[in-house]
Structures are given as structure tokens and as C-alpha cells.
Write a structure and sequence with these properties.
By secondary structure, the protein is α+β, with helices and mostly antiparallel strands. The protein has 4 domains: 250 residues, Rhodopsin 7-helix transmembrane proteins (Rhopdopsin 7-helix transmembrane proteins), CATH 1.20.1070; 103 residues, PAS domain (Beta-Lactamase, 2-Layer Sandwich), CATH 3.30.450; 88 residues; 145 residues, Histidine kinase-like ATPase, C-terminal domain (Heat Shock Protein 90, 2-Layer Sandwich). Helix content is 58%, strand content 14%. The strands form 4 sheets. It has a 5-stranded antiparallel beta sheet with strand order 4-3-7-6-5, with helices on both faces. The chain has a 5-stranded mixed beta sheet with strand order 9-11-12-14-13. It has a two-stranded antiparallel ribbon with strand order 1-2. The longest helix has 66 residues. The chain starts with a helix and ends with a strand. About 1% of the residues have low confidence.
């Protein structure tokens, strides 16, 4: 009901105003015209005064530009009112002069409204804009009063084509300004956009009405001025009234939006924010602060922060933090323990800065707290792990010392084997040779066989000792990695085997261009053992074959040595790499049972692995990888 009464009052007021203007036109058209133009001049100047005086307070640059343009639109409109036919202010001029001035005013108004949206969010140097408008306006008025500006109205004939065309053009410009503004509608208050849209539409209609009259006192001219009055009234409602009653919806809308964004950022950011006043009471907290601690806003506002921390933290805050804050105006990385509503304790780091009044007194704080509970627990775990690692390092150091002692004992053992064990064997071999040379005739056949058996056993024992010493050295010597041409290495070993075993014909297949990264000397030992075994165990076949190549399995190189010798049962493949352990099929061939153990140790030192596949009577294949 109240809204209906309010609307009724507005309709009655508008009816009274328009009726009064119409009666004034009946009494004196000049009076009517002067009232309309003076109203538009007052509105235009009012827009300029408000926008200009608010320019240093962050005024919206759209309205600042409109205000500057409105000043000169109002100045030209005032000149147009004075020059109107019958006013007698400019003797010697006829109705053409006010019509020309009207077109000049339309130029300025159209340009102002279509250019203003460009300055939304952009810098506007108001002094330069004012000077530019002044220069342009003076030039246009000079062209009018200097007789340069084209005629717009001819007595007895009416409007010229130039005037009509320019009315249409300026109407199109105003239409463009309307579309441009609505495209930027989110930058304005909704009511302002609505009022300005209707105002610009009304001014377009007024311009079109001014294309129809033949007499400056005619009905079309009267309608055009009524529409102009309505348009400027709507501009007054949109800009002046809004600026005076709701300045933050118009002139300082950007500031208002910034404040709203700041408030939204403060309350909704995923950080624990709070503000405390002079009495050390909480006056504001972020939503995350409440959610993180499990409280409602009504349970927090007005209480002290120390009500939400542990007793130990409370003593620290009162003794150190608060004095430091009031002395310097800020604190940083203060460790506190907050108590959630459910009783859980959270570790946080507090940082705060003071907001001061004009006298420099602290009025409130802006503080942020970072939950470091998880980080602190992780640090504690890391500390425990570091302690454990330190203990393990001590154990490792102890193990290294023990290993070093064991290596020294191994060196001593190697020395013993090299000298103390080999000496008796040398004696045994020597005596066997003496018995063969000097006592052979005195011994019967059985005695000579015993001497041969003793000599062969001593020789095998000496070979076994040499093999053990080589194994010890190979597994302990320092590795020197390099790029090794395996194809070339295998070819050289095969050639050497052919020279040492000329009676054994073997077909060899060696893949070209195979290279690897490793210790060349150790890899030679690997292939000497693998190829030597292949050569040995295929020796009883007339069609003996040995092959070396590489496979690519899941992006990893797998090297292999294959033969078609006596082979073995794959189920017993694991025994091949045990020290001194040989398969039954291998007992008919010479060997110590250390070669493949050496191969596996070298492959492992290269970060690889080795395995074998075979079938009794059909050969064997040894596969290995290198890191």
C-alpha cells in the first residue's frame, strides 16, 4: 500500500511538471524553451561539479569523463537557449544559429557518452581531458559564429539535409553508447544502468523528433524539447541523485567493490585470520578460523584470543608476545598451541601487524595463524629417523671396520696360500720329477702310475689355488667403467680359443656392434669363462656351435652366450653358480667349479643379474644383464 501511494505521488508530480511546461508553452514558447534548456544546463553542470570534486577520491572514471563532457554540453546548451529565435541576445542572427548550436551540443553529448565506457578501469588525466574539450568546443563555436559551420535551418524552407543527416548520425552514436554501456553493465549499479539506458533512448527519440519540424515553434520541436527534458531528468536521477544519496553505488563503486572483495577475501580465504581491538578482544575472524577450530562466530566474537590457547602458550603470550606487539606494532612466527572446541590441540605460528589511528595509537590488529601441526609432527618423525640413521651409521662404520679387518685377514690368507701352501706342492712336484728321472727303472709299472697320480693331484691342487687367488683378486679390485665393444671382445676370445684348440672345429656366430658400459678387464674374464665352457662342453660334437648376441626385453638389454653341447637339466641350473659345485654332466670335463661363481660375482658388481637355461644333450644358454 505504501509503495502504491509512493508511485501515485511520483505520477502526480510528473503530471504536474509536464502540465506546467505545456501551459508555459501556451503562454510563451520562449518561456517553455528557456525552462527546458536551463534545466538541462543545471543537470549538466551538476554532474560536472560532483564528478570534478570527487576526482581525487577514486571516482569512477566513466562518470568523471561524463562530468567533464557535460560541462561543455551545458555551456553550448546555454548559448543555444540565448540564441533562440525571439530572445534577441545575438542581433543579426536568425533561427539557423540555435539550430547549429543544437547540432554542436549533440556532437559533444554523443562523443561523451560513447567514449566514456573506454575509461572504465583505465587512467584518465582529467586536466588534459578538460583542456581538450575546451579546445574542441571553442573551435566548434568559432566555426558557428564565424560562418564556417554548414547551415542547419533556412527561414521559409525549414531544416537543411545537413541538419537531418547529422541528427541521424548523432542518434546512431547515442545508440552505440547505449550498447557499449550495457556491454559494461557489470561495472555499474543496476538502477544506474536502467535509468541511463532509458535516458539515452529518450535523447535518441528527441533527436529524431527534431528532424521533423519546419518551424522552430512547431509541434515537432515542442515534442523534442519535452523528450529532452525527460532525458535530462533521468540523467539527473541516474547520476546526481544517486551520487548524493548512494555515492558508493556510483562515484565510488570501484572502491565499494574493492571493499567487498577485501571483506570476502578476509572472511572466506582458506587462512586463519582474526582482528583484535585495544582491549585484546576478537572483533572479527575468518570463516576458516571458525571451521578449523570448530566454533560458531557467536562463540568467538568479543572473547580474548588467550581463551583459545593452552596455559603454557597463555603465559608466553602475556609475558613476551603482547609487550613486543605494543612496542613494535608487529610480531612474526610466534609459536602457539590452540585448543579446538573438541579439545584437540593444534600447533600454529602467529603473525600480526597493528592498525593505528591518526594519533599513532594502536586500534586493532590484523593477524594470521598458520597451522603447523602436521609439519611439526613430520619434523619430529624426521628427528627420530635422523637419530635412527645416526645409530645405523655408527653400526655401518663398525661393520666397515670389521670388514676392513676381514679383508686384512683375507690378504694374510692369500699370502699364506700363495707362499706357504704352494711351497709344499712345489716340493711334491719336484720329488715326483726326480723319481721319474732317477728311479723310474727301479719301479714297476704300478709304482710309476702312483707317481703320475701324485704329480697330477699336486698339479690340480696348484691350479685350484691359483683359481682361488684370481677369484679373490677379481672380486675385490676397483672397477673402472668405460664403453666396451663386446662384439670385438668376444671375437678376440674366440680367435684365442681356436688357436689353443686347433683340433676342435666350432661354428661361431657373433652379433655386430654390441657395446656396453663396464670394466673391460672384468668383462673379459666373464666371456673367457662363458665361451671357454661353451667351447669345452660342445667339444664332442662334430657340428659344434657357439653364439653371442643380445635381446631387448621391456627396454632392457639381455646378453647371451649359447652352445649346443652336452647341456644340463634346467631344474638344476641354480647349482651352476655355487662354489665348487658341478653338475653330473660336467664331471667328465676338466674344471674347478669356480669359473661361473666368478662370472656371477662380476655381473653383480656391474649391477646386473645372470641365469641359465639348458636341456640335457641339446646345449645351454647363459643370459646376463648389465646396469
Amino acid at each position: 500500500m505504501a509503495e502504491f501511494r509512493g508511485n501515485s505521488r511520483i505520477v502526480f508530480m510528473w503530471g504536474a511538471v509536464l502540465a506546467g511546461l505545456y501551459l508555459a508553452s501556451l503562454y510563451s514558447y520562449l518561456l517553455f524553451h528557456s525552462l527546458v534548456e536551463i534545466f538541462s544546463v543545471i543537470v549538466a553542470c551538476g554532474i560536472f561539479i560532483i564528478a570534478w570534486n570527487a576526482r581525487r577520491m577514486g571516482v569512477n572514471n566513466y562518470f568523471l569523463f561524463v562530468g567533464i563532457g557535460s560541462l561543455f554540453v551545458g555551456a553550448v546548451d546555454f548559448t543555444h537557449a540565448l540564441a533562440y529565435k525571439g530572445m534577441g541576445v545575438f542581433p543579426g542572427y536568425d533561427a539557423n544559429l540555435p539550430t547549429q548550436l543544437w547540432i554542436v551540443s549533440r556532437y559533444l553529448q554523443g562523443f561523451t557518452l560513447i567514449a566514456a565506457p573506454f575509461f572504465i578501469g583505465r587512467q584518465l588525466k582529467s586536466g588534459y581531458a578538460l583542456a581538450a574539450y575546451l579546445v574542441v568546443t571553442v573551435l566548434l563555436l568559432g566555426s558557428v559564429f564565424g560562418g564556417i559551420f554548414p547551415d542547419c535551418f533556412i527561414e521559409g524552407k525549414g531544416l537543411t539535409p545537413f541538419k537531418r543527416i547529422n541528427e541521424y548520425l548523432t542518434s546512431l552514436v547515442l545508440l552505440g553508447s547505449l550498447l557499449f554501456m550495457r556491454e559494461k553493465a557489470k561495472e555499474f549499479d543496476l538502477d544506474v544502468v536502467r535509468l541511463l539506458s532509458i535516458a539515452i533512448s529518450t535523447l535518441i527519440a528527441a533527436g529524431l523528433a527534431f528532424t521533423l519540424y519546419a518551424d522552430v515553434y512547431g509541434i515537432s520541436n515542442l515534442v523534442g524539447h519535452f523528450l529532452k527534458f525527460v532525458g535530462f531528468y533521468l540523467i539527473y536521477k541516474a547520476i546526481i541523485e544517486t551520487a548524493l544519496t548512494r555515492p558508493y553505488d556510483l562515484l565510488f563503486r570501484e572502491l565499494k567493490l574493492s571493499e567487498e572483495r577485501y571483506r570476502h577475501l578476509y572472511t572466506d580465504t582458506p587462512v586463519m585470520l582474526h582482528s583484535i581491538d585495544r582491549e585484546r578482544k576478537l572483533v572479527n575472524v575468518s570463516n576458516y578460523w571458525l571451521e578449523h577450530l570448530g566454533f560458531e562466530r557467536s562463540e568467538v566474537i568479543g572473547r580474548r584470543l588467550i581463551d583459545f590457547i593452552t596455559e603454557e602458550s597463555r603465559r608466553y603470550v602475556e609475558e613476551f608476545t603482547i609487550p613486543e606487539y605494543f612496542r613494535t606494532g608487529h610480531i612474526k612466527d610466534v609459536p602457539l598451541q590452540l585448543v579446538r572446541k573438541n579439545g584437540d590441540v593444534r600447533d600454529v605460528l602467529l603473525a600480526a601487524t597493528a592498525e593505528r589511528d591518526e594519533q599513532g595509537e594502536i586500534v586493532r590488529s590484523l593477524a594470521v595463524m598458520m597451522d603447523v601441526t602436521d609439519r611439526k609432527r613430520a619434523e619430529e618423525k624426521i628427528e627420530v629417523l635422523n637419530t635412527s640413521l645416526a645409530a645405523r651409521a655408527l653400526d655401518l662404520e663398525k661393520a666397515n671396520l670389521e670388514l676392513e679387518a676381514a679383508n686384512q685377514e683375507l690378504e694374510a690368507f692369500n699370502y699364506t696360500v700363495s707362499h706357504d701352501l704352494r711351497s709344499p706342492l712345489t716340493c711334491i712336484n719336484g720329488y715326483c720329477e726326480i723319481l721319474r728321472e732317477q728311479w723310474s727303472e727301479r719301479l714297476d709299472e704300478q709304482g710309476r702310475r702312483f707317481i703320475d697320480h701324485i704329480h697330477d693331484a699336486a698339479r690340480r691342487m696348484e691350479q685350484l689355488i691359483a683359481t682361488l687367488l684370481d677369484f679373490s683378486r677379481l672380486t675385490r679390485q676397483e672397477m673402472k667403467r668405460e664403453t666396451v665393444d663386446l662384439s670385438h671382445l668376444v671375437s678376440s676370445i674366440v680367435l684365442d680359443l681356436r688357436l689353443r684348440h686347433p683340433g676342435h672345429t666350432v661354428t661361431s656366430t657373433i652379433a655386430d656392434g654390441i657395446v656396453a658400459n663396464g670394466d673391460g678387464k672384468l668383462l673379459r674374464v666373464v666371456f673367457e669363462n662363458l665361451l671357454g665352457n661353451a667351447w669345452k662342453y660342445s667339444g664332442r660334437r662334430a657340428d659344434a656351435m657357439v653364439e653371442f648376441g643380445v635381446l631387448n626385453e621391456k627396454g632392457k638389454k639381455v646378453y647371451f652366450v649359447r652352445d649346443n653341447g652336452v647341456g644340463f637339466d634346467t631344474a638344476e641350473a641354480g647349482k651352476l653358480f655355487n662354489l665348487f659345485q658341478r653338475l653330473d654332466s660336467a664331471r667328465d670335463f676338466e674344471g674347478t667349479g669356480i669359473g661361473l661363481v666368478t662370472v656371477r660375482r662380476i655381473i653383480q658388481r656391474h649391477g646386473g643379474d645372470i641365469w641359465a637355461e639348458g636341456k640335457t644333450g641339446e646345449g645351454a644358454t647363459f643370459f646376463f644383464t648389465l646396469a
